[in-house]
Design a protein that fits this description.
The structure is a single chain. With 99 residues, this protein is an all-alpha fold. It contains four helices and no strands. Helix 2 packs parallel to helix 4 and helix 3 packs antiparallel against helix 4. The longest helix is centred in the last third of the chain and has 22 residues. It is globular, with a radius of gyration of 13 Å.
Length: 99
């Protein structure tokens, strides 16, 4: 998806997620996919939150920061959406994908 090949990126994201639904990198990527491609903010937020909840002492700093930043972006987007007046244009932030 990063390289502009959405179909292949989506296929790989789904395959990785199905292989290990509890992996925090897969959860993050699935969350980004749901928000940015399918427009499903609730499902995307849930996946990124699940990734964040799986962070532990063995998680490297880059991964921790990336997931935390994505979660903050998803929360902010959710808040803006909830507070919107209807026909507003809400810009989706740039989320970070792994691999």
């Amino acid at each position: 998806m990063k390289m502009g090949n959405m179909a292949a990126g989506i296929k790989e994201t789904r395959a990785a997620y199905q292989a290990d639904e509890s992996d925090l990198l897969n959860l993050n990527n699935a969350g980004v996919y749901y928000i940015t491609v399918e427009g499903n903010l609730e499902k995307g937020f849930y996946n990124i939150q699940s990734a964040y909840n799986r962070i532990n002492d063995l998680t490297d700093d880059y991964t921790k920061k990336t997931i935390a930043d994505n979660l903050k972006k998803a929360k902010d987007l959710s808040t803006r959406f909830a507070n919107s007046k209807g026909n507003e244009n809400i810009k989706v932030p740039d989320f970070i994908l792994f691999y």
